[in-house]
Amino acid sequence: MKISKSKNKEIHALIIGDEILSGKREDKHLRHLIKVLKAHNFQLSRADYVSDEIQKIQETLENKKGNIVFCFGGIGATPDDCTRSAAAFAHKKSLVCHPEAKVLIENQFGKNAYPKRILMADLPEGALLIPNPINNIPGFFVDQHYFMPGFPEMAWPMIDWVIENNLLKTEKTTKFEDHSIWLDDVSESSLIDLMNQTQLKFNNIKIYSLPKMHPKKMLELGVKGEHGYVFEALNFIKDNLNSMNISWRDL
């Protein structure tokens, strides 16, 4: 994979909606976003779920300034759709009628754009639009915070557009790898010292272990991080496992 070279810049997901938190609807965005980012050699660093409350959304966005954020939900015109206002507050912008968004909404709905649908054109001042190929009602972005509808059929093409037209053109990246091995009938506790030793020796990687109990006791031991360091670290682990008489196999 590739990750941003910027020391503090990460890619985050923000999924908004009471219906998600109450279980009335199941979130589908997170898994899809991870998959698409991976396909384009980017990695998601964090995901947050927030209710339809303007202050909570605002605070969450404020805490994410300086990072890339894919935000889903709450940009419609109903009373619970407060993401547009929260984005304006978080970025210290006025909420104004965006002229291009206004035209798109009028073209889509004609006289039925008024008096309510046109409210979706009220965006943070200076926001840029994200095209919506399904119904032409755009998303928008401010300072690499990208706001999209909660509907997957609309949001997912917008993710592709953001990556192709923004991330791939603006983000300096470095190759990122994730590789692991399988161990049979081995407990994590017996490998903690080796894992700590590996982590200390190689600064540019993260080591992880994922136990599995069924159909038999197994352990996936892996390393992720910058290209080159990952293979060095994994070879270090393999050599030590051999000296400990612990069998392993590549995935």
Descriptive report:
The protein has helices at residues 18-22, 29-39, 54-63, 83-90, 99-109, 152-170, 192-201, 229-243; strands spanning 2-4, 11-16, 46-50, 68-72, 95-97, 122-124, 128-130, 139-142, 145-148, 173-184, 205-212, 218-226, 249-250. It is of the alpha+beta class. The protein folds into two domains: 2-170, MoaB/Mog-like domain (Molybdenum Cofactor Biosythetic Enzyme, Chain A), CATH 3.40.980; 175-250, Alpha-Beta Plaits. It has a six-stranded mixed β-sheet with strand order 3-2-4-9-8-7, sandwiched between helices. Strands 1, 10, 11, 12 and 13 form a five-stranded antiparallel β-sheet that branches. A hairpin with a 2-residue loop joins strand 8 (139-142) and strand 9 (145-148). Helix 3 (54-63) crosses helix 4 (83-90). The longest helix has 19 residues, at 152-170. The chain is elongated and about 75 Å long. The two termini are 18 Å apart. Mean pLDDT is 93; it is low at 1-7.
Summarize the structure.
This protein is an alpha+beta fold and 251 residues long. The protein has helices at residues 18-22, 29-39, 54-63, 83-90, 99-109, 152-170, 192-201, 229-243, and strands at 2-4, 11-16, 46-50, 68-72, 95-97, 122-124, 128-130, 139-142, 145-148, 173-184, 205-212, 218-226, 249-250.
Question: Taking Cα atoms only, what radius of gyration do you get, to the nearest Å?
Answer: 22 Å
Form type: elongated
C-alpha termini separation: 18 Å
**What's the level 1 CATH class of the largest domain?**
Alpha Beta
Question: How is the largest sheet built, in terms of strand order?
Answer: 3-2-4-9-8-7
